[in-house]
Amino acid sequence: MMYGQQYDNSNLPELLDFIDPGSCSYQEWTNVGMALKEAGFDWTVWDAWSARDSARYHSGECEKKWRSFSGNEHPVTAGTIVHMAIEGGYVPQSSGEYYRRKESRELDWNDTIGEDFVVTSAETAQEIPVPEPVNWNPVQEITTYISTLFDAGDNVGYVTECWETKEGKFLPTAGCCDRTAGKLLEELAICEGDIGAVFGDYKKECGAWIRFNPLDGKGVKNENVTEYRYALVESDKLPVEQQNGILHELQLPIACLVYSGKKSLHAIVRVDAGNYSEYRQRVDFLYNVCDKNGLKVDRQNRNPSRLSRMPGFERGDKKQFIVATNIGFETWAEWKDYIDSITDDLPDFESMADAWDDMPDLSPPLIEGVLRQGHKMLIAGPSKAGKSYALIEMSIAIAEGRKWLGWQCAKGRVLYVNLELDRASCLHRFRDVYNALQIPPVSLRSIDIWNLRGVTEPMDKLAPKLIRRAKKQNYIAVIIDPIYKVITGDENSADQMAHFCNQFDKICTQLGCAVIYCHHHSKGSQGGKRSMDRASGSGVFARDPDALLDMTELELTEDILKQEKDKAACAECVEALRQHAPSVLADAAPDDLLSRRAALQLCKDNLSREQYDLLQLNLERSDARAVQVTAWRLDGTLREFPKFPPKNLWFRYPVHVPDEIGILKDLQLDADLQPYQRGGKHGGEARKKSEKAKNADKRAELMNTFDACNIDGKVTVKDMAEYLGVEEKTIRNRIKRSNDFIIENAVITKVKTEQN
Fold it and tell me: What is the pLDDT of residues 562-579, one digit of tens each?
C-alpha cells in the first residue's frame, strides 16, 4: 500500500486499536498525536488512546503537548497511523472491513478456507447465570487463580494502586512484578484473610488487576513476558449471562473465568503460543471467532502483558470472583480442530430417496470407454515405454477431437505440464508427433504447455498456482508429466501419497477438468503382478485414479522383427517407384509390392544406378529403425467403465500405433518370461544380443540420460538415478565401468574423447 494515498480519515480512531501505545517510542507516540491533529481530530482521541499505556500515561500531558503542535511544512499525516496500524496487523480492504492477515502470503494452519466459524449467536446462546458466591473467600479466590495460571517460579504482575482521571475514571498504575507465584501463595497461606498484607491496600472504587502471563521480573511490558500462555477475552456489549452462555457454547479452552465486578466476564484463554508473532496470530483468530459468534471482543486486550481483573477483591459494591476454571477444551490445538470441524465447507448428507427420481447427469466421456471429464487417470509403465509421447499423442487427440490409441476423445482445450524436458525439446516433440500422426495442426491454440523443468515445486505448492493460472482457461484436461518430479513425501507412505493425490482432486474440482499423469514401474521383475500393482510406491497410486492404464513390454520374435524390416523395405521401394517410375508402380502386381525381394527387383530393373544406390542407403536406415521398434500391452483398471480387453501397441518412434492385424496378440509379456527365455525365440533357439551390442545399448542409455539431466551444465548421481528409476549405487557402478564419465563429489562429468 502507498501510505501517501488518499484515506478516509474518519476511520483513524478505529485504526488506533491496532497500535499499542505501550510499545511505542516517544517519537512514535508524538507522531500519532500530530497525525490526529493534522486530520482534524480533538486531543481527547489521542488522550484516550494514550491512557491504554497505564505505566506512562499522565493526565493532562496530551492536552498540553497537543497545543505545541503548531504545523509544519512537512506535516505528519494520517498515512503514518495507517502504516503503524498495518505493522500491528491491520490490512486495508476496499469494503472497509478490517482483517488481521498480512497481504500476499500463503495460508497457514491458523487460516480457514470456507464458511465462517459460526457455532452460536447472541440470539440463540443459552443464558447462564453468574451468581455471586455465597461464602466468598478472597484468599481462596486468589489462591485458585494463581495456582491455575502460574507455575511456582513464575513472576506475577499485579496492581492494587490506581489513580483517578479528570473524568472520574480509575486507571491502574504499573504495579509490581517482583514476586513469584510460589512466594505469593506462601504469603496468602499465612495472611489470615488479610489480602492487603500480601498485595497492598487497594481502593474498593477501582478493585485490583493482575497480568495473566508470567513476567521476567524486570518490567510489565510485552517484552517482559516470558511465556505466551494465555489471552484475555472480554466483552461488555451483552449481559454477563449471555456472555457466559456464548463462552461455554464456543467451548473455548478457558483456564479461568472471572467476573469483573461490572459489565463483563474476563476469560483467560489458553493459546500456548511459541513466540510473540504466533501469539498475535492466535489472538486475532480467537477474537475473530468470538466476534462472529456474537461476542464483540474488546481488542485493546490483545497484548500478552495486558491486565485483567483479579478475583478476591471488591469493586464498588460488587465482588471480583471466579466463575469457573478449566472449562471447554483442554488445549488450543483441540479447540482449533473443533472450530475447523464445525466450520468446514464439506457438503451435507444426502438422502438416496431424494435423488432416486432425479438422478444427476453423468460427466461426459473424455476418452470413450476409459475416462470421464473431471476424473483422474494414471498411466504407468517402465522406462522406454514412450509414456511422454503417449501423453503428447493424447494432448493432440483431445485438442483436435481425434482418436487416441483407438479410443475417441472429446474435443477441447488441454494443458500439458512439462516437468522433465527443456522447452525446445518439448516443442519439437509436439511437432514431431503431429507429423508422425499425419494430423493437420488445426487446433494448436487448444494446446497450452507449462514448461517447469528446473523450476518445479512439490505438488501441494504447485497445485494452487496451477489452479490460479488455469481458472479461466476452460481446460477439459490437465496432463502432468511425470509426477516423480513433484511428489511430496515418501512415495511408499500411504498417508503421504494420499495427501499427494488429493492435490489432483483439488485441480479436478476447482477447474472442472480431468487430470492425467504418468508414473514409473517399481524396480525389479513385474512378472506375476497385476497391472494395478506395478506402479512404484504406495498402493494409493493404483487405488486413487478413476482409470489406471498400465504399459508392459512384449518380447518380439525374430520372425516379427523380420516382418517389420521387410514391411519397411517394401514401403521404401514403393516410394522410390512412385517418385522415379510411376508407370511401373501402376502396373506392378500387388503381391510383388508386398515382397521385399520382388519389390527390390522391380526397383533394380527400373531405376538408375544413382537412384538404386540411394534406395539401398534408405533401406539400411529403415532396417535400423525397424529393429528399434518395441511392442507393448496396455491393460486397464477402470472405475466408471467395463474393463476392456488388453490393447497391443507398436511404439514406432515417436508414436504408438494399435496392432490392428493381431500380430502381437499371442506374444508373452517380457516381465513374464524366464531369464533363459528373454531375448525371444526363433526356431526354438534363444536369441541373445552379442556382448558388444549390449554394451553399446548401455553406453547409449548413459549418454542419453546424461544429456536429459544436464541442467545448467551440472548432472548429479541422484539426477541420473531418479531419471532411470534405479539406486544411486547402480549409477556409480555403471560410471566406474564406463570410460565416458567421471564422478567427483557426486557430480558427473562427461570425458571428452574421440568417440564422444
Answer: 888 888 899 999 999 999
